[in-house]
Design goal:
The chain is an alpha+beta fold. About 45% of the residues lie in helices and about 20% in strands. A hairpin with a 2-residue loop joins strand 2 and strand 3.
Length: about 210
């Protein structure tokens, strides 16, 4: 219980820090850097996250969905704010890299990345490739050409994530990997790239279970 409360408190503290940083930043510059839409009159940035629009109040940092009364998880708020704060102008290259290829902190965060993103992807979809495609399509994703099955979904406006599966056989077990445009570190630090990849997996799983596929 204490560990859980300590973790919750750390998330709330991280969110408070991100809110303060956002308030001190130029929202028009953030809009240019992130492809978020800025409404000067309302002081609100609208950013698409996992195919849904989220509103960010530039005066408070509060993150909300378009659905009145819907709660947004603190971890989701942090990821969205860190994307808005961290992003710098850089075009997507189309050149995909693995998490291990990232330069800043990949070695430190890889165990967490593997546990939180790769393992649930493989466990859920390793023997259900059709389920992966169907869930991705409902998120606005597209089919890719890698492995035995692969899809890309837009976790954030400039952060596409590609999920790849290989089916197992008598000689080798099923496996999975997750790829990123090599520009991803211009938009998120390594710890948040873990979150982006894992939250994408969790949303795919949620859609799979809700559809009964």
């Amino acid at each position: 219980m204490e560990i859980g409360q300590n973790l919750k408190n750390s998330y709330l503290a991280a969110y408070a820090i991100a809110c303060k940083e956002l308030i001190d930043r130029d929202p028009e510059e953030i809009s240019i850097n992130t492809n978020a839409v800025y409404d000067r009159e309302d002081g609100v940035l609208t950013v698409k996250y996992l195919n849904r629009d989220y509103s960010v109040n530039c005066h408070t940092g509060e993150v909300a969905t378009q659905t009145v009364g819907e709660e947004v998880a603190t971890t989701t708020k942090i990821l969205i704010l860190h994307y808005l704060l961290h992003s710098r102008i850089r075009p997507l290259s189309g050149n995909l890299v693995s998490f291990k290829d990232l330069r800043k902190g990949a070695a430190i965060y890889y165990p967490s990345f593997h546990k939180r993103a790769v393992v649930p992807l493989l466990k859920t979809f390793g023997n259900n490739l059709a389920g992966l495609f169907n869930a991705a399509y409902k998120l606005g994703g597209v089919k890719e050409r890698y492995g035995h099955a692969s899809v890309s979904i837009q976790v954030l406006p400039l952060v596409p994530v590609t999920y790849v599966l290989w089916q197992g056989d008598e000689e080798a077990p099923a496996s999975a990997t997750i790829l990123f445009d090599d520009s991803v570190e211009s938009f998120l630090p390594a710890e948040d790239i873990v979150c982006a990849a894992s939250f994408g997996v969790y949303e795919l799983i949620k859609i799979l279970h809700s559809s009964g596929s």
